[in-house]
Amino acid sequence: MANLLWLQGGACSGNTMSFLNAEEPSACDLVTDFGINVLWHPSLGLELGENLQKMLLALTSGQMPLDIFVFEGTVVNAPNGTGEWNRFAGRPMRDWVTDLCKVANFVVAVGDCATWGGIPATAPNPTESEGLQFLKRDHGGYLGKDFKSKAGLPVINIPGCPAHPDWITQIVVAVATGRGGELSLDEFQRPKTFFTSFTQTGCTRNMHFAYKVSATEFGQRKGCLFYDLGCRGPMTHSPCNRILWNRQSSKTRAGMPCMGCTEPEFPFFDLAPGTVFKTQTVMGVPKDMPTGVDKTGYIKLTAAAKAASPRWAEEDIFVV
Amino acid sequence: MNSEQQNATLRKMAQLMRDGLKTQTEPFPETEKEFAAILEELRRLDPGDLEGKMVISGFVDHPYGPDRQRCMECMYYLVHRQWCDLPELAVPVEADWWCRLWRI
Ligand code: SF4
Ligand code: SF4
Ligand code: SF4
Q1: Residues of B with CB below 8 A from A279's CB?
Q2: pLDDT per position as a tens digit, A270-309
Q3: Which fold is adopted by the domain A2-195?
């Protein structure tokens, strides 16, 4: 049995909701089929009050082994670096985080808040929030950039707002079944298996992207959402169009732009009015180009792609 | 709009420009903010006010500026339908025309 503890800092519980929606394996399968012993979880934990505190102390003292520590939400440091705004089981949550990370074999940050601070850490960041090992793009975060858990890995970051249930369960299962050491992580400590390709990989609107045919309203059945509606699919590392949501669809398939929720800068432009769902342009040219494409090439490509685009690309072709 | 109506509208627009219709080609909207302000102005028009649309969005019947920008490269232009798909405009256009809502 692998002991798993899941705690929540500054969070909306979105990742918990996502996790509870897991299907293959489900949260119950983790216990019955994969031998994961969920010691406590904010929605599933049975212990309350002093009993919970006792269990946490047994973990931090080493009396009880902690194999996987999952953290959801930011580490709240306010006010004035004390963490008193987020107390849990008799002390600031951040103090529990410090002690539990020292004894855990693996530490897994789930969701943008725990990985890089997410929405709570957006300026002016009144809760002085940070992620476990990053604050936005800056390496360090609450635990510091040199942190390694007992198994020798840094925090395993599973970003997303929220993270897809399969990303969470598959990583937890890999760790619980002794394959944690095989995980290969990218520069932001995200498992490469999920975060090497782009949201755009597998998007059903790719041909419209190629032929530069734009969707101009949400939910339209033609057109790509990059040109006008702010889709960040070509710049966002996520498998959202390979591992579908609810096993059915994805934002972009349904006609909503990808907001780039797996990247450290999310939410982009600090949510300034007019920056959400609108492609940011300077003199009519996109500010953020698809990864690896330059402006001159882009303009040339546009002319060529439009000239070559077939008639069907301008018609409604999707029945999603 | 059927193809007959579309052709008629296109001819009317071409005629207006040939007759020297003065449109607001400047300033070009530098960012989303200025772009959104022009869209706001367009939304206040009666959707059938063709001339009003053309004036506010700065239509010209030739490529514009040092980069010779034209509808052809604009993201709102549908090549086969010869149509500007920007919902606030929704008018037929020629590939060589231009307006200041041009975005690539
Ligand atoms: S809708 Fe977004 S993800 Fe899909 S092809 Fe367009 S830019 Fe890429
Ligand atoms: S489509 Fe984009 S915003 Fe939506 S969940 Fe995937 S990465 Fe996040
Ligand atoms: S927005 Fe202006 S430049 Fe673009 S297709 Fe429409 S009329 Fe042409």
Answers
A1: 103
A2: 888 888 888 888 888 888 887 788 877 887 888 889 889 8
A3: Rossmann fold (3.40.50)
